[in-house]
Amino acid sequence: MSASLPFRKMHGLGNDFVVLDARARAFDLTPAQIRAVADRRTGVGFDEMLILERPREGGDGYMGVRNADGTFSASCGNGSRCVAGLLMAESGKDKIVLETAAGPLIAWRAEDGLIAIDMGPARLDWNEIPLRENVDTLHLPVSEGPLADPVAVSMGNPHAVFFVPDVNAIDLETLGPKLEHHPLFPERANIEIVQVLDRGHLRMRVWERGAGITRACGTGACAVAVAAARRGLADRAVTITLDGGDLNIWWREDNHVIKTGPFAESFAGTLDASLLPATSGAAA
User: Fold this and answer.
1) 23/15 Cα distance (integer angstroms)
2) Phi-psi region at 148: left, alpha or beta (left = phi > 0; alpha = psi -120 to 50)
3) Which residues does the annotation mark as catalytic?
4) Are 268 and 20 spatial neighbours (Cβ–Cβ below 8 Å)?
5) Whole-angstrom Cα distance, residue 121 to residue 174?
6) Contact assessment for residue 82 and residue 263, using Cβ atoms and an 8 Å cutoff
7) In the prediction, which pLDDT does 192 show?
8) pLDDT of residue 216
9) Which of 99, 114, 173, 282 has the maximum number of C-beta atoms within 10 A of its C-beta?
10) From the CB of residue 74, how many other CB atoms can be counted at a distance below 10 Å?
11) What's the pTM?
């Protein structure tokens, strides 16, 4: 690897990312390197790192995802809009296929500069979440303080969705990490707390595994829409208001979840060698 590495800083509703391009020259960052870049005081800071790679199965690109703590994630909903936006601008296409570890995502330009993405099917069986044992995913035997009786959904990553009267009354910073590491979740879990405003409008806050409280979570919003519809609390098409803004989610009858929202690029730069203390080797 050279002494510096170009990057873009992007975000979707304040859920922020460092985007690296590994298509021309592959590289492999260690968890320690990723944590160094993620540090908001001495690095760049991000919720997730997105690594754009050459397509593997005929799509327009492959998106790898790493959490701020250096761990792997198969999917990132807000990040997928950012990377899809880059690929569309680069290719001039209005529709692209973005490959991820959770499967291919189809993205297209929507109205008002927004991007819509078919996030694939919601996974609802206990072994798809995954959970450590066979329990009812509509009513998990999980509780901590005022939070209880969540719904489990996987959107390529695990989510536990709790419904509450007032999301602002919940101490998510304290409860989030305890629930993320609950023994029922062998791969940990993203924790969403949700307030039903009406059948078409939900208010959501999120604790993301490996990142903590974030202003938005795209896969989390998809999981929330599915969970609310399964409980009979909302329609299948809803607006979800997160700390960073609104996403429109539609859980289609074929089980696929369509997410529509904005994306933005904040700035571009290069990562100095001081942020990469252990030199990584080029991938084969």
Assistant:
1) 24
2) beta
3) 76, 217
4) no
5) 31
6) yes
7) 98
8) 95
9) 99
10) 17
11) 0.89
123: DSSP letter: B
- Please answer whether residues 228 and 236 qualify as being in contact, where contact means their C-beta atoms are separated by less than 8 angstroms: no
Q: Which amino acid appears at position 174 of this protein?
A: T
Closest CA to 177 of 187, 189, 167: 189
Distance CA 230, CA 259 (A): 18
pLDDT score of 171: 98
Give the rounded distance of the alpha carbon of 60 from its chain centre: 20
**Single-letter amino acid, residue 223:** A
DSSP state of 232: T
E strand residue ranges, the chain? 5-12, 15-21, 48-53, 61-67, 72-73, 95-99, 105-109, 115-121, 143-144, 147-148, 151-154, 158-163, 190-198, 201-208, 212-214, 237-242, 245-251, 256-261, 264-271
The two structure tokens encoding residue 120: 């694939």
Which residue positions in the chain have pLDDT lower than 50? Answer: 1-2, 279-284
For each of the domains in the chain, give its residue range(s) and CATH number, in order of start.
5-116+264-275 (3.10.310.10), 121-261 (3.10.310.10)
pLDDT at residue 49 in the model: 97
